[in-house]
Write a structure and sequence with these properties.
Number of domains of chain B: 1
Oligomer: heterotrimer
CATH architecture of the largest domain in chain C: Orthogonal Bundle
Shape of chain B: globular
Number of helices of chain B: 4
CATH superfamily of chain B: STAS domain
Number of domains of chain C: 2
Strand content of chain B: 15-25%
Distance between the termini of chain B: 32 Å
Number of strands of chain B: 5
CATH topology of chain B: Transcription Regulator spoIIAA
Structural class of chain C: alpha/beta
Radius of gyration of chain B: 13 Å
CATH class of the largest domain in chain C: Mainly Alpha
Number of strands of chain C: 5
Chains: A alpha+beta (148), B alpha/beta (124), C alpha/beta (334)
Largest interface: A-B, 27 and 22 residues
Number of helices of chain C: 12
Strand order of the largest sheet of chain C: 1-2-3-4-5
CATH class of chain B: Alpha Beta
């Protein structure tokens, strides 16, 4: 499963597309519920930030699979002015009000890995990953087939 | 518009059909606040069953509608939150405190009946 | 080793071998081998003295030559013993052929690795058919007997040779029986675990106690994966049954960790977003202390010590009882 999906983000309608693509990719990879919704929600957060604060950017969705795991990488990119205080933006004060209203702490809680780079020169790039171990019994069966 | 609004007895029912934009949120809030005042509606039901994602923006919007309505003397009940959406909202730790929720319209109306009978606007 | 008696004299000294020590012979008599070769020996490939080698080859050749008759004899005895009832005659024939050939190969090479692989595959095939452990052991031992008897018949004219043949045959045959039996049992256990896992996933009971009132009794180990699955099922049940109150009973759960505790809290909050209130019952004192020590935010959680009290409280909340506080014991409403 090689194919990454790119969604240009400029309007609210693009949020719907980005969420739908994320959900579809998660379901195709075999994520159990409620993961597709969690992934779509995290995508909604970062994509909305682009619409509201920058006006233009893109969401890239990359699926991955290896011997033991499967998952999806979500990259949200824009060329905007950047976030001045990135640390405050991702700080989780558990009140739901933290994070400068950018929803990044929440998105981080929905995903497994989360990284952000932001500067006035290169804009903002958020990279989030959600993954699962592949079904253990399926792994065992494959190992035995390989051994035989 | 992405919201269908109708009156049912003393209550106002707003069904959100699709994700709202910034301006649509303001419009909805304004509309509901007006209706609460104009018709002296004591209760508002917001149906979000059509939303397969509720992110922090939508949650904030709902919250702001609830608080505004309360200032105009109306209780608000949210209905139709799907199971996976509920899990996402909780895991996200959205500030859901003022939100009252019920499973569906019937439950919401029964709840509003109980609340408005006691003449209590503050459900706490 | 160099002090051992000359190998060539063995034929005249059968007294050296005894029936009680067949093992020693195969493992400890590498007289004709050098020290280096002896060190290379592994369990899989026991080095055999040339004498034993040729005996074994003779044995294996004989078993291969008479494959058809011996296999038929074996199949007959399987039917007689009423084993493998779930399989048709064609199936038995086809599996018997494979088992026989693998058996003889194992005798010849002394390698159990191939045999293990074959035994696992065989088990995988026949377990879903309902073949049981005693049947598998039974047929392997029957094959062992059939072959042994035919060796008796062939070599009965020369008792000493027969003894040597049996000394060669018996340990190998026993090893084969053990290998096949153990492989089968291990495969069986694996299948049972698989089935238990599947059952656990399918059968979390969310019970409808009364109209609008659900109860979810949790029994056994509560781990993250199971907690996630329980949440899905509970929320689905709340939606389908239009429940307004849920009792989650963890009397049957011994311990939980922070992850699972948080999961429980999130489940309660998610239920609330679907319009249902939750009462947690049956917390052991250990779990209660764990929750306090972990500083888990119990927020909206209402807990009652025992299940009965929890049900009464739930009925009250759902409107089935008068609001008589003396009904419920130890309510901790937050």
């Amino acid at each position: 499963m090689a194919d990454e999906v790119r969604v240009a983000i400029t309007t609210d309608a693009d949020l719907v597309t980005a969420r739908a693509e994320g959900r579809a990719m998660a379901e195709r990879l075999g994520f159990p519920r409620p993961d597709p919704t969690l992934i779509a929600t995290a995508i909604s957060e970062v994509a909305r930030n682009i619409v509201v604060h920058v006006g233009r950017g893109e969401i890239v969705l990359k699926p991955f699979e290896d011997a033991n795991r499967y998952g999806v990488v979500v990259i949200a990119r824009d060329d905007g002015p950047g976030i001045r205080d990135v640390e405050a933006a991702v700080r989780d004060d558990y009140s739901g009000r933290g994070g400068l209203g950018l929803g990044l702490p929440g998105a981080r809680r929905l995903m497994d890995d989360f990284e952000i780079e932001s500067s006035a020169d290169s804009g903002t790039t958020v990279t989030m990953t959600k993954w699962r171990f592949r079904d253990e019994l399926a792994i065992l069966r494959e190992e035995r087939r390989r051994r035989a | 518009m992405s919201v269908a609004i109708q009156r049912q007895g003393d209550y106002v029912i707003a069904s959100i059909q699709s994700d709202l934009s910034d301006s649509e949120v303001l419009e909805l809030r304004h509309e509901l606040a007006e209706m609460a005042g104009r018709h002296r509606s004591r209760g508002i039901v917001i149906d979000v069953a059509a939303l397969d994602v509720i992110d922090s923006f939508v949650a904030r919007a709902l919250r702001s509608i609830v608080l505004t309505a309360r200032l105009r003397g109306a209780d608000t009940v949210i209905v139709g939150i799907q199971p996976d959406v509920a899990i996402a909202m909780v895991q996200f730790r959205l500030n859901l405190e003022p939100l009252r929720a019920a499973l569906d319209l019937d439950e919401a109306i029964a709840l509003l009946d109980r609340l408005t009978q006691g003449d209590a606007v503050d459900g706490g | 080793m160099h002090e051992e008696p000359d190998r060539s004299a063995e034929d005249e000294e059968p007294e050296q071998r005894t029936d009680e020590e067949p093992e020693q012979r195969t493992d400890e008599e590498p007289e004709q081998r050098t020290d280096d070769e002896a060190d290379e020996r592994t369990d899989d490939q026991p080095a055999r003295p040339t004498e034993d080698d040729s005996l074994l080859q003779e044995l294996v050749a004989y078993l291969r030559e008479n494959r058809t008759e011996l296999r038929e004899e074996w199949a007959r005895r399987i039917s007689e013993a009423e084993l493998l009832g779930v399989m048709s005659d064609e199936e038995i024939f086809s599996e018997a052929t494979e088992v026989y050939d693998n058996y003889v190969d194992a005798l010849e090479t002394g390698s159990i690795e191939n045999l293990q692989t074959y035994a696992r595959e065989l088990s995988e095939r026949i377990i879903p058919r309902g073949v049981e452990t005693h049947e598998v052991l039974g047929i392997v031992l029957l094959l062992r007997d059939v072959l042994a008897r035919s060796l008796f018949a062939k070599y009965e004219g020369d008792l000493e040779l027969l003894n040597r043949i049996l000394d060669s045959y018996e340990p190998a045959a026993n090893r084969i029986a053990v290998t096949v039996g153990v492989s089968f049992v291990e495969e069986r256990e694996r299948v049972i675990n698989e089935q238990q896992e599947a059952m656990r996933e399918l059968s979390t009971p969310v019970l409808q106690l009364r109209d609008r009132l659900l109860i979810l009794p949790i029994i056994g180990v509560l781990d993250s994966a199971r907690a996630r699955q329980l949440t899905e099922q509970l929320l689905g049940a709340i939606r389908d049954k239009r429940a307004t109150v849920v009792v989650i009973d963890i009397t049957g759960v011994a311990t939980i960790d922070r992850t699972v505790a948080n999961h429980l809290v999130q489940t309660v909050e998610a239920s609330r977003l679907m319009g249902a209130r939750t009462i947690l019952t049956g917390l052991s004192s250990e779990i209660a202390q764990t929750l306090v020590d972990l500083d888990v935010d119990l927020g909206m959680m209402e807990t009652v010590g025992d299940l009965q009290g929890g049900i009464e409280e739930a009925e009250r909340l759902a409107g089935y009882r008068n609001a008589d506080a003396s009904d419920s014991d130890g309510t901790v409403a937050t």
